[in-house]
Every structure is written in structure tokens, then in C-alpha cells.
Design goal:
Number of domains: 1
Number of helices: 12
Strand content: 5-15%
CATH architecture: Alpha-Beta Barrel
Strand order of the largest sheet: 1-2-3-4-5-6-7-8
Shape: globular
Order of helices and strands: EHHEHEHEHHEHHHEHEHEH
Distance between the termini: 8 Å
Bound molecules: 2-phosphoglycolic acid
Largest sheet: 8 strands, parallel, barrel
CATH topology: TIM Barrel
Length: 271
């Protein structure tokens, strides 16, 4: 179901550095079988799903999903380099992601920003490379607890958004972007933003996207089509309430995406 706003919800699993190829395959099979078994429910609920496995099993998972007809499945990398090739030991390029059969990439995840010290400008460069390559780029943004306590949430998120989208100078490029709002203090902590807190930031993000589209000369309301996912301790028991907010168009799920039943439980929250 695409609600009154025409945005199909997307429930995406970010597996992080978890699952061997064998484990990831079993997890994805469990989820796809669960969707097929719930086909009636899903055709009413209707959501897209996404898998972001470790790069080592990207091809395997993309192959598995390529013939699935139960719902639309995005498969993507958790990161990639801004350059298209070269002497960057340990990195992967947009072409490598595509050659696995994947169609998406997460960029600027809070662990990339805070554990690996990725900067806004690096993330902006990656966004450009990803979109130019034809990948659906998921730009992750979110404030730390200190920034929230200092009432700097909108400033921080606004700056991350601006820098992340800076190099996408055409409105058509912005259309290839999904935003994930993930407050850093809610990731892996069991502490979720309340639906009202999340909705407030999502509405702000949509407003910022409106200006971004306008600045690029967009005629239509492109920002009304952009999916904005919430992430941070999303579980089956809090998903429905978060997903019922008008500007929350899905979830980016870490811990709870590693168990087929809990991931499916979150998908059911789209109803
Ligand atoms: P979490 O992670 O669901 O385990 O909080 C979310 C994320 O990091 O994308």
C-alpha cells in the first residue's frame, strides 16, 4: 500500500559486520520465505524491503533476490569509495557494487562517521559517485546525544543533509536518494526516539529537501516522493507506531534485522 502520499514504505536491514555468506543466505531465505508465506498480508500491507549485507556476500544475496516476486527488494552495500578505481586497498567501488547485481548503497552511516571518522565532504563525494553510477543512495544523518541536549539537532541534521547532497546539482539526481534519519543515541542502544521526536525531525528533513529540489529548479514536489527512513533500535513492538507518522516512510534496522521473524514483524508494522 502506498498511503495517501504515494510513498511505498521501505524496511531495510543493515547487517553491519555480521553474517558469513552462509548465515546471510539463510537469513535472507528466511525473510523471503516469510514474505511469500504472508503473501496475502503483504499485498495489503505492501512494503519494499532492503538488504545491506557485508560486501563479501553482496553478490550471493543479490542473486538470491533477483528472482523474488513477493515484493520489491533493494540490495546494497554498506559503504563504498568515492573514487571509481585505484590504489585504495580494502575499499570497494560503485562499479563493483553494481557488478554484484546490487542496486543501492548506504552512505554516511553513523558508524562510518563516528568510528571511521568519515567527513561530510567525503560523504558528499560518495553520494555523487553512487548516484552517477545509477545506485540508489541512502544518505544517513543523525545527531549525537550531546547535540540533541544542546538543542542543535536541526542544525546538525540540516548541515549533514546539505553536505551530503551538495554535489547532486540536478533535481533528477536527488530523486535517486533515500534519507535515513538515525539519531546516534538510538543506534544499538535500545533507546528509540519517540514517534513524535522522530516525526519532528523527518518533517524538518522533508522541508529541507523541498528547498534542495527548488534550488535545483525542480518543477514538481520531488521532496514529497523522497522516502525518509527512521533508524535506531527499531523493533517489531515499536515499528507500527513509528511507521504511522506522516513523514516516516520506513525503517533502517540494525540488530532486529538479523532475525527473520523480527524483521518480518517490523515489515508487518507498515500496515
Ligand atoms: P539498530 O541499528 O537497529 O541496531 O539500532 C540501526 C542502524 O545502525 O542502522
Amino acid at each position: 500500500m502506498t498511503g495517501s502520499n504515494n510513498r511505498t514504505p521501505l524496511i531495510a536491514g543493515n547487517w553491519k559486520m555480521n553474517t558469513t555468506a552462509e548465515e546471510g543466505h539463510a537469513l535472507a531465505v528466511g525473510i523471503l520465505e516469510g514474505i511469500s508465506a504472508r503473501a496475502v498480508g503483504f499485498s495489503t500491507v505492501g512494503c519494499d524491503i532492503g538488504f545491506y549485507p557485508p560486501a563479501t556476500s553482496l553478490g550471493l544475496i543479490a542473486d538470491l533476490c533477483s528472482t523474488f516476486e513477493g515484493c520489491r527488494v533493494l540490495v546494497g552495500a554498506q559503504n563504498m569509495h568515492a573514487e571509481t578505481s585505484g590504489a585504495f586497498t580494502g575499499e570497494i567501488s560503485s562499479a563493483m557494487v553494481l557488478s554484484c547485481g546490487a542496486d543501492s548503497v548506504l552512505l554516511g552511516h553513523s558508524e562510518r562517521r563516528h568510528v571511521f571518522n568519515e567527513t561530510d565532504s567525503e560523504i558528499g563525494a560518495k553520494m555523487e559517485t553512487a548516484v552517477d553510477a545509477g545506485l540508489t543512495a541512502v544518505l544517513c544523518v543523525g545527531e549525537t546525544i550531546e547535540e540533541r541536549d544542546a538543542e542543535n539537532t536541526t542544525e546538525v541534521v540540516g548541515n549533514q543533509l546539505e553536505a551530503g547532497l551538495e554535489k547532486l546539482t540536478e533535481a533528477a539526481q536527488l530523486e535517486e536518494v533515500i534519507i535515513a534519519y538515525e539519531p546516534v543515541w538510538a543506534i544499538g542502544t535500545g533507546r528509540t526516539a519517540t514517534p513524535a521526536q522522530a516525526q519532528e525531525v523527518h518533517a524538518f528533513i522533508r522541508e529541507q529537501l523541498g528547498s534542495a529540489f527548488e534550488k535545483r529548479g525542480a518543477k514538481g514536489a520531488g521532496h514529497e516522493k523522497t522516502r525518509i527512513l527512521y533508524g535506531g533500535s527499531v523493533k517489531p513492538d515499536n515499528a507500527a507506531e513509528l511507521l504511522s507518522q506522516p513523514d516516516i516512510d520506513g525503517a533502517l534496522v540494525g540488530g532486529a534485522s538479523l532475525d527473520a521473524e523480527s524483521f518480518l514483524g517490523i515489515c508487518e508494522g507498515c500496515g
